[in-house]
Amino acid sequence: MSTENEEWREDSKSENTDAGRDGNRSYNREGGYNRPSYNREGGDRPYRPRFNNDNRSQGFSRPVRRTGDYDPNAKYSKKKQIEYKEQFVDPNEPIRLNKFLANAGVCSRREADEFITAGVVSVNGEVVTELGTKIKRADVVKFHDETVSIERKVYVLLNKPKDCVTTSDDPQARLTVMDLVKGACAERIYPVGRLDRNTTGVLLLTNDGDLASKLTHPKYLKKKIYHVYLDKNLTKADMDQIAAGIQLEDGEIHADAISYSDEVKRDQVGIEIHSGKNRIVRRIFESLGYKVVKLDRVFFAGLTKKGLRRGEWRYLTEQEVNFLRMGSFE
Q1: Catalytic residue among 113, 196, 262, 267, which?
Q2: Is 60 exceeded by the pLDDT of residue 28?
Q3: pTM above 0.85, yes or no
Q4: Which phi-psi region, left, alpha or beta, contains residue 137 (left: φ > 0; alpha: ψ -120 to 50)?
């Protein structure tokens, strides 16, 4: 399980391939990112999380030759899918219809409200269009005349590659994150939040509507850390300004922590932020005249991409799921 001190870590074995493909990685001599220098509470106080990849014992190994039908995700086959323990729920306790649909893996709660008002959801044979309607778990719920029920929960973590859209269906037939995890489970899972087409990194997919709402709702303030590649060096003055707060068209925004990821090449920075606003990291730097040429999310709500190459996924562990459910992660 990732700890606070691993927030900035990227597994060396999983990222070596990307390093050769993406150019210079911004690691310090110890094998990780430099510590962020600025944060809201402590001014110039060093920020605790840092990399510390220890490769001394790894040595060198022969390159592995793989056939054309090699599947990097075969080790995460359905046969090895984790069975998560369900939290106790009183079967007689009423549940909102939109929450029921979300927990059944049909859609998100927001989308459920749209389907309900559109008149495509029925309960015990009667169409329900009123938002906020509560039902019992034993009621017969139909969506587009097909019976739906609350499914077992599935949690999949993906290291999203670039040129891939975060959607369940794309009218332009582009590669989607769902294409990458289509072999993970029989249940319909959905991405939690969004990453731009060319933003890479940590992305969670699940059919747990309750958890998805907690991880994306602004009031829960889940931490996100990004590795940002800029078209030019970031000045110290602009870094100070980002830490203090920048006024954008939709309000003021500030980083919780920010630092250079390489003290020599200052066109790469690490930024910690809680906001879930659309394209917020890109907009922060664009407002100061910088262009983000590459953006990689390395941390989301306690989860990292450690051990996953670009495009690979894995199931969350029972411990990770419990931490997320309890809100133990930042």
Answers
A1: 196
A2: no
A3: no
A4: alpha
